[in-house]
From TrEMBL:
Gene3D superfamilies the UniProt entry points to: Alanine racemase
Entries under InterPro entries matching the protein: Ala_racemase_N, D-amino_acid_metab_enzyme, PLP-binding_barrel
Domain Alanine racemase N-terminal: 22-193
Protein name in UniProt: Amino acid deaminase/aldolase
Pfam families associated with the record: Ala_racemase_N
Length: 395
């Protein structure tokens, strides 16, 4: 069920746009669907795709969601000290000396937080920040999950240099032999499956993407299994993390994977419209006011240039959502201080009316707003701060 523009307008009638909302019915329905797709395997909640503590806590309060995956060590220590979660993995290596010192100084944070490494150079960096003789730091070894079907061909994100099982075992042995570190987990993120829709383009393009994803997932399953076995001979791993919102089914089917990462599926940004095997409900929206009527079929909105990260292009622009029948102008797009929209629905818009838009990526919308208004039906149940609203900026 989709709430109409009228319902959202009514819920926020006493609030001035620009403003951002999260539809709780859609958020909860998406959480249900993530759990269904995981088929009993625990889901670790990816914080970068939410960036709002109240929503992270809402997800973690449900059975089946266990632990956070943060994108910054400073963020992870903040959550640990607030008690948001007692199980936090930092998905990316850190070079933040101050946060490393905060981590080492806090017994609570050290027990909760696991940092990411893929080489002994990362251990050197920690030693440089903390000095030798520091308390044990929990670490997770990242395996590169890209697909390399031919020499020189790399399909996927550029992450860890550890690709082969033998490389993983070699780094694991060095970690275990190093004082001040405890190897507790492994991770591999298959971005070419989890973050790339197989129904977002034309027929041939979709078939090629689907073929690539099937071949890539099969290759990774074999390689990840061998790598985990090799590392388990060296260390007693507490967890093996994999996947993302787009690859829950294939990643969860691997026996060696103990948990799945997911975050974007809660809020359903436009980049997640293009998957054939699941359809999340748009949950995060933002409203902009109409401030000009330059032509009968054009309404100009205030602000709106909230361009998502990644390869530049139309897929990273926000998309008009409600009322239906609006689109951006190709020449002007979404702008810093104004965003014109056109289409049949633009003819009936008046000054002060609201247009509801969706962001291309999930968490980045929270960098634009200090608050999310949590809406159910035509009522605002709560207004909660985003990370920015709590004065937090983790880069």
């Amino acid at each position: 069920m989709t709430t109409s523009a009228h319902g959202y307008d009514l819920a926020t009638k006493d609030l001035d746009p620009p403003l951002a909302i999260v539809d709780l019915d859609a958020f909860d329905a998406n959480a249900d669907d993530l759990l269904r797709r995981a088929a009993g395997k625990p889901i670790r909640v990816v914080s970068k795709s939410v960036r709002c503590r109240a929503l992270l806590e809402r997800a973690l309060a449900r059975d089946g969601f266990e632990g956070l995956m943060c994108y910054s060590l400073a963020e992870a220590v903040w959550h640990a000290e607030l008690g948001t979660s007692a199980d936090i993995v930092v998905a990316y290596p850190t070079a933040d000396h101050e946060s490393l010192r905060r981590l080492a100084a806090s017994e609570r944070a050290r027990a909760a937080v696991t940092i990411m490494v893929d080489s002994t150079e990362h251990l050197d960096l920690v030693d440089a920040a903390l000095g030798h003789g520091h308390p044990d730091i929990r670490v997770c070894l990242e395996l590169d999950a890209s697909w390399r079907p031919l020499p020189g061909v790399h399909v996927g994100t550029r992450r860890s240099p550890v690709f082969k099982p033998g490389q993983a075992a070699a780094v694991a042995r060095k970690i275990v032999a190093r004082p001040g570190f405890k190897l507790v987990g492994m991770m591999a993120y298959e971005g070419q499956v989890a973050g790339l829709g197989d129904a977002a383009g034309k027929g041939l393009q979709n078939r090629v993407i689907g073929w690539m994803q099937r071949r890539s997932a099969a290759e990774l399953a074999r390689r990840r299994s061998a790598a985990v076995r090799a590392v388990r001979e060296v260390a007693d791993l507490e967890f093996v993390n994999g996947g993302g919102t787009g690859s829950i089914e294939t990643t969860g089917a691997e026996n060696v994977v103990t948990e799945i990462a997911a975050g974007s599926g809660f809020l359903a940004p436009t980049l997640f419209d293009g998957y054939s095997h699941f359809r999340p409900r748009p949950a995060a929206l933002f409203a902009l006011p109409v401030v000009r009527r330059p032509a009968k079929n054009v309404a100009t909105l205030y602000s709106g240039g909230y361009i998502a990260s990644g390869p530049t292009g139309p897929s990273r622009e926000p998309s008009p959502y409600l009322p239906e029948g609006l689109r951006l102008l190709g020449f002007e797009g979404a702008g810093e201080v104004q965003t014109p929209v056109t289409g049949e629905a633009a003819r009936s818009l008046r000054l002060g009316d609201r247009v509801w838009l969706r962001h291309a990526k999930a968490g980045e919308l929270a960098e634009r707003f200090l608050q999310y208004h949590l809406v159910r039906g035509s009522q605002v149940e709560r207004t909660v701060p985003t990370y920015r609203g709590e004065g937090q900026n983790f880069g």
